[in-house]
Design a protein that fits this description.
The chain has one domain. Helices cover 11% and strands 23% of the residues. The strands form two sheets. Strands 1-4-5 form a three-stranded antiparallel β-sheet, covered by helices on one side.
């Protein structure tokens, strides 16, 4: 099983570098949901979903998270600037 963080409006996945990718193969793997939620807070992502991917079994479960308190519409993620999987949009 893989645990990854996904932006719910765009479908992009958080990368190890803090950037975003449309290809889940390049998404950062987390060892636990607690680690994923900690990274979400560290990167200041007001909107996020945790995705539990069961690749051998061929399915995934997406869990939308409540918005972070104290975060507003000026979130650091700007989906209009990351149009390709190769885009390297850094957060913060």
């Amino acid at each position: 099983m893989r645990i990854v963080v996904q932006h719910p409006r765009t479908g992009y996945y958080l990368e190890e570098t803090g950037g975003w990718t449309t290809d889940v193969r390049y998404a950062r793997d987390f060892v636990s949901s607690a680690d994923a939620m900690s990274a979400r807070r560290q990167h200041g992502l007001p909107e996020a979903s945790l995705v539990f991917r069961f690749e051998r079994e061929g399915y995934s479960i997406s869990v939308p998270l409540e918005p972070l308190r104290g975060e507003g519409p000026d979130m650091p993620f700007r989906p209009d600037t990351a149009a390709t999987p190769e885009a390297d949009l850094l957060i913060g």
